[in-house]
From TrEMBL:
It comes from the Bacteria. Keywords: ATP-binding, Nucleotide-binding, Transport. It holds the Pfam family ABC_tran. SUPFAM superfamilies: P-loop containing nucleoside triphosphate hydrolases (SSF52540). One of its GO terms (cellular component) is membrane protein complex. Signal peptide: none annotated. This is ABC transporter ATP-binding protein. The keyword RNA-binding does not apply. Residues 8-248 form the ABC transporter domain. InterPro entries: AAA+_ATPase, ABC_transporter-like_ATP-bd, ABC_transporter-like_CS, ABC_transpr_LolD-like, MacB-like_ATP-bd, P-loop_NTPase. GO terms for molecular function: ATP binding; ATP hydrolysis activity; transmembrane transporter activity.
Length: 249
């Protein structure tokens, strides 16, 4: 894999739901490169198309037209069975609601992506997982089930699980939405660290300017289009900028 190939690409993506008078244009001609090793935040008002874009780029949904690429693979209209494999091997997800398996303990949840792929971590992967467990402060929780953990601990397990296979991209949908601000900051620091220390590519949808200020880049959607693409900014700069978009729209 060439390292200069973007980790993910959207090419003239459109997504239309419904028909005729009930038609909703969730995405309108969106083109975006997600650079390798970068932490990108996607912002925008409710209904602007953030989740739709992320789901299509992650292979969870198909576009109406346009292309979605993960590395050198076009996933936009790939058959389901093949897409499932690509998702398992190349994509990590972190959801607002953690999405851990309640019947599995922390160790079982962390190993789930490997189990689903019908294999065990190799020595390098196991070493990386062991490092993640220590750095996320989960060492004494490995035999606990999700309901025995705090929200912040559950989200840390979800992040470790998403990172464990070293995927091409980790997509995070409002990962701090259900956390108090201190725990949320810890989770953001983990995502930041994953990009800085491990060269992990991260795409995070958020409404929160403080969360977005941890990212290297802030892409703003409005009514299904990209309306701004900014380098790393402070929370104050992002708040002011989002406000100016609302005023001028
Ligand atoms: N399955 C669906 N059927 C019909 N319309 C949909 C569907 N999913 C999304 N939409 C519409 O597409 C538009 C974009 O939705 P999307 O969820 O991507 O926005 P969002 O920016 O993520 O919003 P939020 O911040 O509220 O989560 C909205 O108008 C929404 O109502």
């Amino acid at each position: 894999m060439q390292t200069d190939t973007p980790a993910a690409r959207a090419r003239s993506l459109t997504k239309t739901y419904g028909r005729s008078s009930a038609e909703v244009h969730a995405l309108r001609d969106v083109t975006l490169d997600i650079r390798r090793g970068e932490f990108t935040a996607i912002m925008g008002p409710s209904g602007s198309g953030k989740s739709t874009l992320m789901h299509i780029m992650a292979g969870l949904d198909a576009p109406t037209s346009g292309e979605a690429w993960l590395g050198a693979i076009e996933i936009g209209r790939m058959p389901d069975a093949q897409l499932t494999l690509v998702r398992r091997r190349r994509v990590g997800f972190v959801f607002q609601s953690f999405n851990l398996v309640p019947t599995l303990d922390v160790r079982g949840n962390l190993l789930l992506p490997f189990e689903l792929d019908g294999r065990r971590p190799d020595i390098r992967e196991q070493k990386f997982i062991d490092e993640l467990i220590v750095s996320l402060g989960l060492s004494d929780r490995l035999t606990h089930r999700p309901h025995e953990l705090s929200g912040g601990q559950q989200q840390r397990v979800a992040i470790a699980r998403a990172l464990a296979t070293r995927p091409e991209v980790v997509f995070a949908d409002e990962p701090t939405g259900n956390l108090d601000s201190k725990t949320g900051r810890d989770v953001l620091a983990l995502l930041r660290d994953a990009a800085t220390r491990h060269g992990q590519t991260i795409v995070m949808v958020t409404h929160d300017p403080v969360a977005a200020s941890h990212a290297d880049r802030v892409v703003v959607l409005g009514d299904g289009r990209i309306v701004a693409d900014r380098p790393r900014s402070t929370a104050e700069e992002i708040s002011a900028f989002m406000l100016s978009l609302e005023v001028t729209s």
